[in-house]
């Protein structure tokens, strides 16, 4: 789960990306993070991943108060967070299998465990038959599913996505969102930053909406719950 308590973030040069932001995303929930370009969505995700530190306020992720954590414990925080990017950031000099295996190899899993877990993840995203292919040979939607398999391969309790359907047509976008729903249904907490209002309007999830770094609606906080 995620708790933001009065979190502000100013970048060098003085730009304030987040302003006294408070919200609670309980364990096992799925929510969308919305707002215009520049509203602070990526900054919020970066604070959760410890790619940035808040200027003030507290961020608690998976029961860890990030403000109190020394830099050497950052890898431990990141191991519990799966991240899906818009441009999926796959490596085109290795196979689908090797891309998905990467987080496990970094975490020191043994050869047999890696094989078992990678195939389980590829099976969940419907790409078991593509494990030997180069990601370049896959469609945009399939590449994004490889990115999702890589994000979930070590079974993190929290899954974040930054514009995961940004380059996809509506049908493929709906498929990708359905995949996130499936992970949520087995208990994974999911937070998805997206511009795609038409896609999420039909989905029964609460929103965290930002405008100029402030919360304009957060379900459950009586500030415009859907
Ligand atoms: N490293 C940085 N240094 C200085 N300013 C930054 C930095 N990162 C983001 N900003 C500024 O902070 C504000 C919020 O940016 P952020 O990327 O969080 O917005 P966003 O809602 O994710 O936008 P988008 O949808 O375009 O990705 C913007 O005005 C941006 O220019």
Please provide a written account of the structure.
By secondary structure, this protein is of the alpha/beta class. Helices cover 32% and strands 26% of the residues. The strands form two sheets. The chain has a six-stranded mixed β-sheet with strand order 6-7-8-3-9-10, with helices on both faces. The chain is built from seven helices and ten strands. It has helices spanning 41-48, 74-79, 96-106, 111-124, 140-152, 170-185, 197-201; strands at residues 2-10, 16-25, 30-34, 56-61, 64-65, 81-85, 158-162, 189-193, 206-211, 214-218. Adenosine-5'-triphosphate binds at residues 11, 13, 15, 17, 35, 37-43.
Provide tags for this entry.
226 residues; alpha/beta; Rossmann fold; 2 domains; six-stranded mixed beta sheet; four-stranded antiparallel beta sheet; 7 helices; 10 strands; globular; disordered C terminus; binds adenosine-5'-triphosphate; ATP-binding; ABC_transporter-like_CS; membrane; transmembrane transporter activity; ATP hydrolysis activity
Distance between the termini: 20 Å
Q: Specify the CATH class of the largest domain.
A: Alpha Beta
Write down the Rg. 17 Å
Widest β-sheet, arrangement of strands:
6-7-8-3-9-10
What binds here, in terms of ligands, is: adenosine-5'-triphosphate
Structural class: alpha/beta
CATH fold category name of the largest domain? Rossmann fold
H-E string? EEEHEEHEHHHEHEHEE
Spans of at least 5 consecutive residues whose pLDDT stays below 50 are 220-226
Number of helices: 7
Approximately how much helix is present in the residues? 25-40%
Subunit structure: Homodimer. Forms a membrane-associated complex with FtsX.
Protein name: Cell division ATP-binding protein FtsE
Organism: Spongiibacter pelagi
Main location: membrane
